[in-house]
Protein: TrmH family RNA methyltransferase
Amino acid sequence: MKPSGSAVIALCNPKSPTNVGAVLRACACFGHDQLVYTGTRFELADYYQTATRNAGDKVNRRRVNNIAAIKEPHQQLVAVEFAVGATALPEFEHPEHAIYVFGPEDGSVDQATLDACDHVVFIPTLTSLNLGATVNVVLYDRIAKQPPMDKDDTDQLIKTSRDVNNRLKVRN
Structure:
């Protein structure tokens, strides 16, 4: 199953290898193969990243100087940030083609980038999630809001997604 539309993940100067690994795995798990980043810390974090199942090999990574400048006419920029006036993620309708912008673990999306965004959303939690968890929640929300799959497609997705040690079947 390939998700409809496209999603590019854009990270603002991420620093944590664990989070970079989790982001790469989220991209691979949810079927999105484009990741862009700003700043100088990504290369070190990417080198030490902890993604499993070769997720890093499935995701194209590219450094950019300005996230807003890479936006193409068919895409919308969506910042995920605790910003006054943001839309709660459960109420948000994802654009067909999005660039999701995430701030660093030790900061926020800069104001100029936030101002360039078409949408700003937040995850209604009592405190901030870490970067890897945030990307997973947003990509899950995107796929959860798509039309439901039929049973045959669901079963096929399960068979191709699970690892070799899982052969479980629901018995009614």
